[in-house]
Design brief:
It is a single chain. This protein is α+β, with helices and mostly antiparallel strands and 70 residues long. The protein has one helix and three strands. The protein has one helix spanning 50-69; strands spanning 16-22, 32-39, 46-47. The protein has a three-stranded antiparallel β-sheet with strand order 1-2-3, with no helix packed on it. A hairpin with a 6-residue loop joins strand 2 (32-39) and strand 3. The longest helix has 20 residues, at 50-69. It is elongated.
């Protein structure tokens, strides 16, 4: 996800990077996932696409169901 400007601070240096996104889970199976996104070089605000966000939400849902079924 290429960002041209940070919506938080207005910085124009928002390179594409690999981000380590925490996963909400009641298990120790998965703590985080790596996705490609953007990160502001000034304030550190991170951006991911809606597609990646939906995938993370599906992972969290599956982990929650797995924990309940255990």
């Amino acid at each position: 996800m290429a960002m041209k400007i940070c919506v938080v601070c207005g910085c124009r240096d928002v390179p594409t990077v690999d981000l380590d996104i925490p996963v909400k889970s009641n298990t120790d199976l998965l703590k985080s996932v790596k996705v490609t996104g953007s990160k502001c070089s000034k304030c550190g605000e991170e951006y991911i696409s809606g597609k990646e966000l939906q995938a993370i939400e599906q992972i969290e849902k599956a982990l929650k169901e797995l924990a309940v079924g255990a």
